[in-house]
Amino acid sequence: MAYVFPGEGSLDYFPCRYGSSRVLFRGPRRDIERAYVAVLGGTETYGKFVPVPFPDLIERQLGMPVVNLGCMNAGPDVFINEAGVTEIAAQASVTVVQVLGALNLSNRYYAVHPRRNDRFLGATPLLRTIFPRVDFTEFNFTRHMLMALQSASVDKFEVVADELRAAWVTRMKLLLSRLGKTTILLWASDLPPPQPTRRVDLTCNPLLIDTEMINAIRAPVARYVQAVFSAQALSQGVDGMAFASMEAPAAAGLPGPAAHQEIADMLMPAIHQLM
User: Minimal CB count within 10 Å: which of 39, 148, 181, 237?
Assistant: First the structure.
């Protein structure tokens, strides 16, 4: 069953920082003075609304600290901009990197907040030239903005999408180059990566990512784990999740405890192989 709370802060995420980073991660803070595993990722890794997210499940099975470096709505930029975080990830015995969407990164067409990557800061003159009738002051978040651009013109939107894909590949290669050789790339979604012919679909998460892009960044990683949630896990909906009543729609769009267990189960063999 779901645990619905009427007030704010239905879960205590014990927010903490590592090193000199200004980014808040889910705690409690782990001991990084001894051997540990690190997990870089977005909202799914952070485990929003999930009492025991998959990094904690892995920790229980391994019997060693697993540092949850999941950041809400993260793109690659938040980790690239935080050298202290990538250093912690690089020093881990094994590092897991979740495949993140391509919408939340700065590029030739728009800028995002350096730490809260889903925050749209503004359009460049180039994007304003492509979409002269769009009022970009109306947007606070990247997803809302991209959906509006696609609605305005599918063809023009594809120009922007191509830039995002190219920037994502470049940025992910840079991020992975800063990590160790025992790195696992993780795809975690309710669907497998789509083929490039389906690139315009904005309903697939991670957004705008396809098989071609994943293949382009796989070379430096030791393992690739594709965790596609089972029908049984998806059928459980928000069972076991903890959220305030007004957060129910957001919770319904995120993986629940059963999906997190599946992610952990799929990662464990790869982690054991690299330990």
Answer: 181
DSSP 153: -
Residue carrying structure tokens 């009427």:
6
Write the pLDDT tens digit of every residue in 46-94.
999 999 999 999 999 999 999 999 999 999 999 999 999 999 999 999 9
The class that CATH gives domain 3-274 is: alpha beta
Task: Give the residue extent of every domain in the chain.
Answer: 3-274
β-sheet bridge partners, residue 243:
4
Residue 84, both tokens: 């202290």
Q: How far apart are CA 111 and CA 92, in angstroms?
A: 31
**Spacing of C-alpha 106 from chain mean position:** 16
Give the H or E element holding residue 90: helix 83-90
Instruction: Determine contact, residues 78/115, Cβ cutoff 8 Å.
Output: yes
Asked if 139 and 148 touch (Cβ cutoff 8 Å), the reply is: yes
